[in-house]
Amino acid sequence: MTAPTGGKPAEVETDGDVVTIRLNRPEKRNAITGAMYATLADALTAADRDGAAVVVLTGAGGAFTAGNDLRDMAENPPLGDDPPPVRFLSALAGLRAVLVAAVDGPAIGVGSTALLHCDLVYATVRSTFRFPFVDLGLVPEAASTLLLPRLVGRQRAAELTLFGESFDAAEARRLGIVTAVVDDADALARLVAERTARLAGKPRKALHATKALLHDESTPTVAGRLELDRRMLQDLLGSPPTPGTHLN
What we know:
This protein has 248 residues and is α/β, with parallel strands linked by helices. 43% of the residues lie in helices and 16% in strands.
């Protein structure tokens, strides 16, 4: 187990096959700067390169994240084809490892849109969620205008993004944005530790392949998916599924 990088606004901790990425700027409710985005992007890329089973995203100090640090963004606008926020979102969307979010407190802006890319989202009852982009003169990022309507329906997605009003963990659970809600931060830590340990103990190749199938959009028909299933099954049967076996 490697300890987190102490004192940095974005910390990375590796415990066996589980990588935890923790936003650690509680005095700013973990608002994300360009430098933090670069760290997050590099950590996600490294997790897949090293064959991690699970990546956990979380925040320190009773906040998931208040979203982008708008002052930093004004001083360091994310221009060009591959600025740190774009690299982070690309790495997030393309992550091979199972992506788990542990949310305690506010998840605003990218704190909510990033959840749409997660495979599992666990939250405390005090957590809140918000898509404030229109109020800021912006549009929602992270492909959320595609993913959110698919998850909650077009009209509900319009209400959430056009009004930008806060909603609680119970509503997020009802909408399908959150997997489960627990009482407090201690319960959240226990649940995430138990769930990620179970995932890490499963056959790695099957774990990653199942996630890939769940995210695949290239085969929208049953016939196409049956063929994709067949090819993946043949690949898995050619390699005995043992716990911890990597895809490569």
